[in-house]
Amino acid sequence: MNEQLSLKALHIILVGEHLRSRLHSEQEPPMIRDRRYHLRMYPCCFIGRDVVDWLMKNSDANSRAGAVQCMDILLENGVIHHVVDDHHFKDEMLFYRFRRDDNTVVKNSDLDVIYKGCDIYYRAKNEDSHLIKLRPCHDFVFRNCFTGYELVDWLIQKSEVPDRAHGVVLGRELLDQGIIKHVTDEFHFRDENIFYQFMIDKVVNKKMVDALGIVDNKQPGSPRNFRRRNLPPLNTQRSSPVPFAKERPELDEQFDYERSPDSPVFFPSSGSSSQSPRPVIVREITTGELMDPNGPYVMKNISVKSDAVGFGFVVRGSSPVYVQTVDPKGPGAAAGLKVRMFLKSVNGKDVLHWNHRQVSQEILRGHNIVHLVVMTHFKGVE
């Protein structure tokens, strides 16, 4: 089973892909090109010192040390590497490459979907296809949006998928991996006139130090000031922590959307425990807290019978798995299932220490009905 990606690790990948796209577009002089050192040619690489210069020039960092800090986060998380893996990132005449450019990215089906989604985003943007644009709806205007129907059309037109069914599958995979999201997190991906956004837009208009959560207050004549936070590295051989500041939740605009008459199906996800575009869990809850007899969580039995479309809810998380989304018109809501309920058992099997992929498979084994034991905060009990 592939190691699941955290929301922060996904964010770092998106920052890296945005930097990679920008560096490849630089042609005067080219930032990424084949370079020779002694008698050996190193294809498709960049120089550490040049990238630091470039980040400073483009105001992505306030100091050279801040720029090095940014690039080292990308290196620790397997986005870039030294061409012979001998160095951390340094502000020196050393060659580095994006792992996507030399095909050394760790093989992972989740990463394949993430990178494919990034490629689709930049291709649609660069071609000026008008797929991603301002979308008015009632009294609101949503930036950088597209509809599910238009994305499927675009995928077929660009030969990314052979037909609409495959386009919907790809759209669902992109949403599961956190690459796209419904504008109000109410729907999974549908081939309909429903609005979605690419999550990479969250990093496109930010300085790199801000996107990576680095406080780089270096001003001329003043000492460096960095605030470092720890994040487990992604796909890296080193065990040292990676500095990364906690994300601040962002408030979406209110959205009054005409709901589709169909209930969303239960979608088994291949994503991670925390990589939903907008996690509904404010803080991490442990299984110990859930099962503490003196704690605030109580047990509740719920049986959900699927309709012609599905069960009408989405799960996320790992040890414990929780309910991320419930269609208000679906069978899950009718049975009393609510967002932020934690799953203790499914069809009589204890799932407290399972991940959501395992839980998804177990739910689907129940065919038309699934028996759940959930843990819910006592304030949420009717």
Question: Keywords, please?
Answer:
WH_DNA-bd_sf; Arc Repressor Mutant, subunit A; four-stranded antiparallel sheet; mTOR-Rac_regulators; DEP domain-containing protein; 16 strands; GTPase activator activity; 3 domains; 21% strand; 11 helices; guanyl-nucleotide exchange factor activity; 382 residues; single chain; Pdz3 Domain; globular; alpha+beta
Architecture overview:
The chain is an alpha+beta fold and 382 residues long. The chain folds into three domains: 7-98, Orthogonal Bundle (Arc Repressor Mutant, subunit A), CATH 1.10.10; 109-205, Winged helix-like DNA-binding domain superfamily/Winged helix DNA-binding domain (Arc Repressor Mutant, subunit A), CATH 1.10.10; 287-377, PDZ domain (Pdz3 Domain), CATH 2.30.42. 29% of the residues lie in helices and 21% in strands. It is built from eleven helices and 16 strands. It has helices at residues 7-25, 48-57, 64-76, 109-126, 148-157, 164-176, 201-204, 208-211, 287-291, 331-334, 356-365; strands at 33-37, 40-47, 80-82, 95-98, 133-137, 140-147, 180-182, 195-198, 230-231, 242-243, 297-305, 313-317, 321-326, 342-346, 349-350, 369-377. The strands form five sheets. Strands 1-2-4-3 form a four-stranded antiparallel sheet. A four-stranded antiparallel sheet has the order 5-6-8-7. Strand 1 (33-37) and strand 2 (40-47) form a beta hairpin. Helix 1 crosses helix 4 (109-126). The longest helix is centred in the N-terminal third of the chain and has 19 residues, at 7-25. The radius of gyration is 23 Å and the shape is globular. Mean pLDDT is 79; it is low at 219-277. GO terms for molecular function: GTPase activator activity; guanyl-nucleotide exchange factor activity. Pfam families: DEP, PDZ. One of its GO terms (cellular component) is plasma membrane. Residues 19-100, 141-200 form the DEP domain. Residues 301-378 form the PDZ domain.
